[in-house]
Structures are given as structure tokens and as C-alpha cells.
């Protein structure tokens, strides 16, 4: 998958994670959460299902990217909530 596809998938996954968890933030934060979440989701998918290379057109890729983004955003809220 090319870098442009990673950015698009990350942005969509980040926005979806923000919507699921009702977390405020801008497009930049969504992009970072989405790209990091996509990497985490791909890593988890590789460990569990032995599928490291997925395409942007695969529904499994989107599920892993959004799931990873939700996990990253949830962990981020736990870490930042304790500091305040």
C-alpha cells in the first residue's frame, strides 16, 4: 500500500475512532491517531490472523485500522486523564 493510501485510510480510521469514542479533536489529531491505529491494527492482525499485508480495498484492513485507532485513542484518553 502506498503512502497516500496509508494517509487516506488513517484519516478515515481516525475520524471513525473519534466518532465512536465521542472524542473532540481536529483533522491533524485524527490523522495521527488513525495512522498509528492502522499500524497497531495491522500488527495485531498479523499476530492473530497471520495477515500482515492487506490492501486498502479489503474490508479486513478497514476493520483492523478502525479497531486499532479506537484502541490507540482509548489508551490515549486513559493516559491523559490520569495526568490532569
Question: How would you explain this protein's 3D organization?
Answer:
The protein has 84 residues and is an all-alpha fold. The chain has one domain. Helix content is 80%, strand content 0%. Helix 1 (3-21) packs across helix 2 (27-49). The longest helix is centred in the last third of the chain and has 25 residues, at 59-83.
A few lines on this structure:
With 84 residues, this protein is mainly α. It has 3 helices and no strands. It has one domain (3-83).
Let me know the number of strands: 0
Uncertain residue segments = none
Assign the structural class, choosing from mainly alpha, mainly beta, alpha/beta, alpha+beta, or little secondary structure: mainly alpha
Taken from the alpha-carbon principal axes, the silhouette is globular
H/E series: HHH
What percent of residues are in strands? Answer: under 5%
Alpha-carbon distance between the two ends: 39 Å
Count structural domains. Answer: 1
How many alpha or pi helices?
3
Taking all Cα atoms into account, the compactness measure Rg is 12 Å
Mean pLDDT: 83
The percent range for helix content is over 70%
Q: Give the biggest sheet.
A: none
List the defining traits of the structure above.
84 residues, mainly alpha, 3 helices
Which secondary structure elements does this structure contain, and how are they paired or packed?
Layout lengths: L2 H19 L5 H23 L9 H25 L1
Amino acid at each position: 500500500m502506498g503512502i497516500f493510501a496509508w494517509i487516506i485510510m488513517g484519516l478515515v480510521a481516525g475520524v471513525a475512532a473519534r466518532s465512536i469514542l465521542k472524542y473532540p479533536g481536529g483533522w491533524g489529531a485524527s490523522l495521527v491517531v488513525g495512522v498509528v491505529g492502522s499500524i497497531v491494527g495491522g500488527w495485531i492482525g498479523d499476530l492473530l490472523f497471520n495477515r500482515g499485508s492487506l490492501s486498502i480495498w479489503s474490508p479486513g484492513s478497514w476493520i483492523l485500522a478502525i479497531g486499532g485507532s479506537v484502541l490507540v485513542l482509548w489508551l490515549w484518553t486513559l493516559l491523559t486523564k490520569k495526568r490532569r
